[in-house]
Queue: 2 jobs
Job 1
Amino acid sequence: MEPVISVKNLTQRYGTGRLIYKDLSFDVPQGHILGLLGKNGTGKTTTINILMGYLKPQSGQCKIFGRDITTMDAATRSRIALLIEGHVQYAFMTIEQIERFYAKFYPRWNREAYYELMRKLHVSPRQRIQSMSCGQRSQVALGLILAQNADLLVLDDFSLGLDPGYRRLFVEYLRDFVKSEDKTVFMTSHIIQDMERLIDDVIVLDYGKILTQQPVKQLMDTFHCYQFDTKTENIDSDADLLNPSVVRGHGEVFSFKDADEVKNRLQGQGVEVTNFTTIPMSLEDAFIGLTGKY
Amino acid sequence: MIKAIFYKEWLKTSRTFMVCLVLGLAVAIYADLGINRIVVNKGVDHVWLIMLMKDQMFIDALRYVPLLIGLAIGVSQMAPEMSNKRLKLTLHLPISSEKLVGLMLLTGLVELTMIYCSIIATVFCYESTILPHELVCRGVLTALPWFFAGYIAYLFATSVCLEGTWRERILLSLIGIGVLTVMFMQDAPEAYNSMIVAVILVMIAIIALTYRSVYRFKEGRQ
């Protein structure tokens, strides 16, 4: 089956300057939730802007539902629900007005889903969105996304401004919605612990390149954090010893290699280690292990 | 869908529309009262005499009002689209961007036409009760370029607001100021009669600038 999103050899720069990434390629199959992770400025929002046709890539090809995004027609757009970074919506409208407005564009509009989420907001349906708090505005934007009942959801930093309870509620609601209705999701978020509950596949971007691209479960099974005691102050980083650090004799290193191999590699560098242990990781730990703390 | 677009545009501009309508009518009534004062003090024949001999049309108060109204409607309609790059939401709607921009501009132009017609009706309906048809027409033709300038100001305001880069915004603003200056260079009544067709063609050409701004936005020039 053709993937819902197909990106081939995408290359993009900031203007004519710094390379954001080169030859970025990935597919998002139907029914999958893919999370794009990366530090600030690694090109997450840029990728969404390119996919949605708001930015012309320097080179490469992007297809959504088999259609080149440069010639995306209205019918294809109606199958995509888009959450813009910052949960931007028509703030001059009220909760009622914005629902009435969008309902006219989408034949599968689910009014109930929208009002079900709005009831949890404890605001008047006639309240203008611009007079709401940042979190409430985000909830309105997310309610509209779900009501659209689209085949593909593109969510840029969906957890921005949401309080923990609503974040958890939304993540559960979204996962249930996506899995029961065979929807596809392409998303970014700064709060990686939310992504862990939600995504099937992950792409981790660094400046100018992809660090890893695989199913989350596979990443969590194959990527490890090792901690140890050592008298060495500096450990050299390489492809198998990622982001090593030593603080007051306590060392840490991340790797896709198993414990014995990492120990051997460290000893090969002349690093004597004791109390070498494998530490259980969350997706956020893995992200930091791949990208570094700074 | 079309109704929904009109609805959104109306929600953005309704307050400005009402303020502009009241302002326009207030200035129109002020112009009527000015003429009426002369009629009461010196008789209607004095008004005729000044209009014919001194090229005075007694509607100078209106001169820049359509321009200001055009700018106000244009900015109130398009500035919210560019705040937080909200235009992305609009362009994501399942409707072709050409049709979408066309409907947005149509809403603004219809609103302007409603306000302008109200002003023209207020001034010239009163004038038609005291002046011959020829003088009323002369007044309408004298004021017509000011209203065209209002449409042009609106179209430039939309293209500037929807443009994503400051360099282009400044360039478009300077072109706009240049075109509008030409529209106010002649004070004599009916000075622009021979140019009305050209002015209409310029207006149509300026519509392309708004589309250009939107295409540039879609290409990522933000």
Job 2
Amino acid sequence: MITVTKLEKSYGRLKVLQPLSATFQAEQAVSLIGPNGSGKTTFIKSILGLVVPDAGEISFLGEPIRGGWQYRRDIGYMPQIGRYPDNMKIRQVFAMMKDLRGTNQSPAQSNYLDEELIRAFGLPALFDKTMQSLSGGTRQKVSACLAFLFDPKVLILDEPTAGLDPLASEILKDKILKEKAKGKLILITSHVLSDLDELTTDVMYLQDGQLQFFKPVEWLQDITGEVKLGRAIASIMSNERKSERVNE
Amino acid sequence: MNKVIKYVWLDILQNRIVLAYTVFLLVVSATLFGMESNASKGLMSLLNIVLMVVPLISLIFTTIHFYNSYEFIELLLAQPINRSKLLLSEFAGVASSLVTAFLVGVGGPVLLYAPGSTGAALLAAGVALTLVFVALAFLASVCTRDKAKGIGLALLIWFYFGLLYDGLVLTILFSFSDYPLEKAMLVLTTLNPVDLARIFIMLQMDVSALMGYTGALYQEFFGSMTGSLYALGVMLVWAVVPVWLAVRVFAKKDL
């Protein structure tokens, strides 16, 4: 569904993404992991067209995205830090998004709105609060609801469970599993590897803007002999360090 | 696109600054007309206020508005919305609010105390100045990431066009007073929208004695009608080019 070829981006002298290529298919749930500053968010933002890459190409459903915007009707995005107009109420934010996206949906898409998550989070009770009065967690809930609201084909979730209480984060994980079962492509970044365990089918590991590996979870479990994602990754990383030392 | 403008208006109405600007203009205009016995003297005083205040408020308000709607812009850009259209909608929303404020605040008293072609010229010039400086402010905000820098740049633009530029022109006039500078002066005036607005109104007022060197030149070169059209046309260019540049820069901006 998404093909990335030789994507490059630098901020000034800092190279954030080295030439990076990857292909994402429907029904995949990809975990994007890597240390802070490894280029995960820049990578995601390039797919969304929020960051304009220096070189390389991204195509979405076979169409190059450069300069386009229609393709975003098939994407639901949950940012790491959701920022909203301060004096808007939750109700108004939802109304505005429905209003703005209403006419931009392709005819094939019905006007189906997925409001399950709004109810599950109990947001209707807070509808008349302004965005600036919300706690970080509630803001995250609003972001999550907006990402799922338009029933998109691709879900891009940047640190979805950060700041959510355990109950909310379970609700969100259930929802992600449900959407995954419907055959959507899901891209998640997270540092909480235990959250990713049940969700992920593939792991994409970035370091210093370079793709270290992009493999199915089974492959990781096979070569490391670990079942838990966190341990498998840790074991690969420590092996790499060892081999680096040997090389030195 | 219209929907985005609607939300820009809602946001502007909510923070009441434009309302305060309208009231301020109303009070100033009404006071000036009340103080002067002669309506055209009132217009002259109003002209000086308009030439200073309109650019300043347009620049500052637009810059602050842009940085305050950064979240809104970020939110919308992750949606299926065209970047250029988003920026143009922002421009249309801000510019139309400020133009409305100006037309109500200055237009009302002018219609009441000094209806006529000179009053109309003042209003046209004010509207053109608003568009030009909103456009320049958009360009300044799009080019800078930091709010303080953006506002600083906006203020710099105001100082340059409102104060510094005339000083520079005078310096040139004095240092090259031995040469015929008529044509050069025409070009120099075209390069400053505030001067253009001033000349545009002066041509309408038919007070060539007050216009000094440049204005007399304009009258001589163009005659009133052509001169006015030329001035307005150049002002339009001053509004369109910065907006066009801003759209181009914004299309490549990382958020």
